[in-house]
Specification:
Number of strands: 10
Protein name: Probable branched-chain amino acid transport ATP-binding protein LivG
Helix content: 25-40%
Structural class: alpha/beta
GO molecular function: ATP binding; ATP hydrolysis activity
Order of helices and strands: EEEHEEHEHHHEHEHEEHH
Keywords: Amino-acid transport, ATP-binding, Nucleotide-binding, Transport
Function: Probable component of a branched-chain amino-acid transport system.
Family: Belongs to the ABC transporter superfamily.
Number of helices: 9
CATH class of one domain: Alpha Beta
Largest sheet: 6 strands, mixed
Strand order of the largest sheet: 6-7-8-3-9-10
Length: 275
């Protein structure tokens, strides 16, 4: 990989946030461990994410990256450890409760309703965040539904799909389906967005458009996000901080420059080849 591919020189307009003294991190995990039988997928993971940070999680296949994300979003229960969001433990909560508290996730493959329109996909996500667990309260005040419609419009505008609002989702090009999937995650108006391989399967043009979208969302919404991504060019160009997992453990964390030059990371991630 070329050394100039991800130096981030054209993406330095937003400085790494500096937390106020005594302020609570947005997300913290303590001793987070997940075992599947005799396999330890995450092993005593301590992770801290400050408000406004762009944190990437990298590591070789099987390092425990997706397991960590699924623990945070409550799709998996930890074997040991704690997860705190806005200072409150979320262990034991249902996934939709975590969404309502401000955590959203975009998946490795586009998770959309193909038979519905682009607008309907975003509205369902916005309504689920409002009502919880995709339930619908027929006594909801119409002003709240107006809020959902406004949130939908703003979301589709933010991801560049407002002009395709009435298009069936299944008819979108692959890159736009991924943009819609990010939009679905944004429709919940999260404080924290978790993205698992958002550019997987995209062409170079689609990848660039998606990276630009992530940057725009970060600038406009001040969103905090955690990114799992294999493309090192994206990781080095978009991250404030990088956390490296190997065999379920955190082996390094730091700025892109610190991670690029870390020999332990080079050995674990690329067999000693420089990043």
């Amino acid at each position: 990989m070329s050394s100039d591919a991800g130096d981030g020189s054209d993406r330095e307009s937003t400085p790494t946030p500096t937390p106020d003294a005594g302020s609570e991190p947005l997300l913290q995990t303590h001793g987070l461990t997940k075992e599947f039988g005799g396999l330890v997928a995450t092993d005593d993971v301590d992770l801290t994410v400050e408000r406004g940070e762009r944190v990437s999680i990298i590591g070789p296949n099987g390092a425990g990256k997706s397991t960590l994300i699924n623990l945070i979003t409550r799709r998996l229960d930890p074997t040991e450890g704690d997860i705190r969001f806005k200072g409150e433990s979320i262990v034991g909560m249902e996934p939709h409760e975590v969404v309502q508290r401000g955590v959203s996730k975009s998946f490795q493959t586009a998770s959309i309703f193909p038979d519905l329109t682009v607008r309907e996909n975003a509205e369902i996500a916005a309504l689920a965040a409002e009502q919880g667990d995709f339930g619908f309260n027929f006594f909801t005040h119409r002003n709240k539904l107006t809020d959902v419609h406004e949130r939908t419009e703003n979301t589709l505008d933010a991801v560049g799909l407002l002009n395709q609002a009435h298009t069936d989702a299944e008819d979108l090009p692959y890159g736009d389906k991924r943009r819609l999937e990010i939009g679905i995650a944004l429709a919940a108006e999260p404080d924290l967005l978790l993205m698992d391989e958002p550019t997987a399967g995209m062409s170079p043009e689609e990848t660039k458009a998606t990276v630009d979208l992530i940057e725009e969302v970060k600038e406009e919404l001040g969103l905090t996000f955690v990114l799992v991504e294999h493309d090192m060019e994206i990781v080095f160009s978009i991250s404030d901080r990088i956390v490296v997992l190997n065999r379920g453990q955190v082996i390094a964390e730091g700025t892109p420059e610190e991670i690029r030059g870390n020999p332990d990371v080079q050995e674990a991630y690329l067999g000693g080849v420089e990043l």
